[in-house]
Amino acid sequence: MLTYSLDAKKGVLLYEYIYECIKKDILSGKIKAGTKLPSKRAFAENLGVSTVTVENAYGQLMAEGYIYSEAKKGYYATDVTGIEEYHSKNTTSPQMAGFARANDTEPQKYSVDLTSNKADSEMFPFTIWAKLLREVINEKREELMDKAPAGGIFELRRAISEHLMQFRGIEVSPEQIIIGAGTEYLYGLLIQLLGRDKIYAVENPGYRKIYNIYKSNNAECVYIPMDEKGATVADIEHLGADVLHISPSHHFPTGTVMPVDRRYELLKWANSAGGRYIIEDDYDSEFRFSGKPVPAMFGMSANDKVIYMNTFTKSLASTVRISYMVLPFELIERFKENLSFYSCTVSNFEQYVLADFIEKGYFEKHINRMRNYCRKQRDALIKQISESKIAGITEIKEEDAGLHFLLKTRLNISDEELIKKTADSGLRISCLSQYYENPKDAPQHTLIINYSGISEAKIPEAVRLLCECVG
Amino acid sequence: MLTYSLDAKKGVLLYEYIYECIKKDILSGKIKAGTKLPSKRAFAENLGVSTVTVENAYGQLMAEGYIYSEAKKGYYATDVTGIEEYHSKNTTSPQMAGFARANDTEPQKYSVDLTSNKADSEMFPFTIWAKLLREVINEKREELMDKAPAGGIFELRRAISEHLMQFRGIEVSPEQIIIGAGTEYLYGLLIQLLGRDKIYAVENPGYRKIYNIYKSNNAECVYIPMDEKGATVADIEHLGADVLHISPSHHFPTGTVMPVDRRYELLKWANSAGGRYIIEDDYDSEFRFSGKPVPAMFGMSANDKVIYMNTFTKSLASTVRISYMVLPFELIERFKENLSFYSCTVSNFEQYVLADFIEKGYFEKHINRMRNYCRKQRDALIKQISESKIAGITEIKEEDAGLHFLLKTRLNISDEELIKKTADSGLRISCLSQYYENPKDAPQHTLIINYSGISEAKIPEAVRLLCECVG
């Protein structure tokens, strides 16, 4: 009978030790495939342990498949010759060896970063957020555990629909709103909804990330050139696009606001054939500094051809991953039919807190505060630039909305050299040309100045570094 | 010169009123395309308002594109004839009319639900969670605003890697771990990583949702039949699969634990050609009731062929959307190259809280508490069934792990009728056959009893309803 010395058992449970001994012998071939193991009781007596201990050891060996049982006959060793063969043929994995610690958690350090939209931690409403979280956790325990519908919890969708009515003049039912963990995620969902056989068009220049997302999802994606009003119907038709992805209220990075006549031309294009849609990416409409917000195209469309998207990642913090899209009725029906098996990607905790945050008026206050802050930042930065030595050799453009403006310079070096030069002195900037499909076709030497991500105290240093690099 | 009576202005700002008047006249054609508008100063004098008011009105009209300016000449009305044409051709949107209030927020009510994995709100560690949230909000304001790497914050990835080492015996570097808002989202990411040209294989029976996700992402997906040990290499090769998606530690719904010999056969298959991978979906490995956890295949693979996935949606709450995958080194490199442009889909707040929750030992305690709770639930339910009138005509199977067991009955009605019958009496159940590609090929009259989602107090009612329906 099998016998093991139990003296060698060190720091493991007795049943685990016996399990390990038998497993080792089966793997080494000492116990051959098909060998009958002793009965639990006899084996226990032989080892001087309780039957339960052997039972537990056999149980674990059974669970992992090293032995099997035959009813009323007993336990047998499994044929594991394939394992030995596997290990002899396959070299060990490189595992940790030679795998340098990834540096994605430690990006290059800059003393001033004019590319970031990162909210200043002074601006995030931590106190209110913490208070609402506490209330939600105290008062909504049942609801917090209830699975949300694919589109998100009703309370948040209702809050957003009321917000859209009040601040964007868009009248939508909460059911048309789909909540998701960031617009990037929602783009992926839209591709599943509209179809991978469609041709998607994005603006050139524009966020390259949007293009990358379409490509990464194997959807055909084309760049549409922009004239001074935005994308033209002629180009869209020439490129055979079905779905047009634009930011008519405030284009990044050019700052273009699409005028009303061009908007209707595009709506007419969308109406003139089936399956055409316009994705209106309204990512920073909250940040217009003068006058009323520009109306959304969604409200202009008579025939449900516009999908409206917006996000709280710009208005709250990029690290709070909540965005939404508003679907026309036809697409809501299709969404319910084809995609409602998905779970909503935002946790209930944050959905309930955000719903309260909007409904109790904190969001409006926060937006006003943010807008004032950004205006102040912009004004201070522009004032200091205009009083600096580069005032005469630079020109500021598109400063009326959003979280950035353009700074045209008269440099002779290439944009690539410029970015390297600024980086070397600790200033991170981006250039307009980086947002073009072909950077060589782009206006050169035009910096994009994102001012929402730097603190007021950093502005003099930012201007000093700008003077150093473009002066 | 343009003249408007300002008496009609009601409750709107003066500039807004002037803006509305001019806009209306441009849209109606009263002010024709190309007409020069009065200069701001002259117009202001004429209306008896300040120049700033006219400036604001013109500014808004400019922003929306109803007028345009020519340098040193003045302001002109835009050609908006396309708008009239658009509205005359397109009927008004159905909008809210006829759109019944979606009922996705109000699902059918059951008195007992044996299909749900919803955590009992008594079980969720609200107090600890709230405490950690408070600490994170107080102590990590800067970090909360810092954009996380695509794979998630380092602290959470490190906590998970330590947890995997301690509880699954898997040694991985934090950089191999990718955090995402639910496994469903991560499947979509994996398709982008591995390619849409691959053939993905899922187990039959199994979660239909996984199949749906592959299909919705236009990836070819095939069902692999299971024998008593799981999927076979013969079937996988016959169906030409490249990527095998399985749950070897505990298959849902059959409860099968894949034995060690079959595991190595599958690893050998994965090694024998390039581009082959095994996705190990370890969704409920925390809930094994007897013995040690079954080792993960990830740790057995010598050649980086296994992608490990797990989720906190089962162990914490389905409404906390945090899951992760562990990529082999080669795929981590590919992920960095191709997909690191994505933002992590889980908000920093929840990532930091979960990291603390794991690192401070609360997760281990919670899992133990959950396991005990589930074991108690299971024992009580099985005991009450075995003492009920259906004890003799039913058989309980696969009760050793996870959050469900199978209840074989001797009914003569179809599974469809059975589900309807139970639903009518307020009991929600699912049948094994519902998880088969072709329900007719499946074992009939076998109920899946998910016991994690009902409270202890509900067990007698659950058993009473079961007796009523299957007795």
Question: What does it look like?
Answer:
Two copies of one chain form a homodimer. With 471 residues, chain A is an alpha/beta fold. Chain A has 17 helices and 16 strands. In chain A, the strands form four sheets. In chain A, strands 4-11-10-9-8-5-6-7 form an eight-stranded mixed β-sheet. In chain A, a hairpin with a 6-residue loop joins strand 12 (394-397) and strand 13 (404-409). The longest helix of chain A is centred in the last third of the chain and has 25 residues, at 362-386. The radius of gyration of chain A is 31 Å and the shape is elongated. The N and C termini of chain A lie far apart (89 Å). Residues 92-106 of chain A have low confidence and may be disordered.
Structure, briefly:
2 copies of one chain form a homodimer. With 471 residues, chain A is of the alpha/beta class. Chain A is built from 17 helices and 16 strands.
Write down how many β-strands of chain A occur, each being a DSSP E stretch of 2 or more residues: 16
Q: Oligomeric state of the chains? A: homodimer
Content-based structural category of chain A: alpha/beta
**Tally of DSSP helical segments of chain A:** 17
- Average pLDDT score of chain A: 90
The low-confidence runs of chain A, each spanning 5 or more residues with pLDDT under 50, are 92-106
How does the overall form of chain A come out from the CA principal axes?
Answer: elongated
Share of residues in strands of chain A: 5-15%
Largest interface: A-B, 119 and 119 residues
CA-to-CA gap between the ends of chain A? 89 Å
Using the CA coordinates, give the radius of gyration of chain A: 31 Å
Q: Percentage of helical residues of chain A?
A: 40-55%
Provide the spatial order of strands within the biggest beta sheet of chain A. Answer: 4-11-10-9-8-5-6-7
Largest sheet, strands/sense/barrel of chain A: 8 strands, mixed
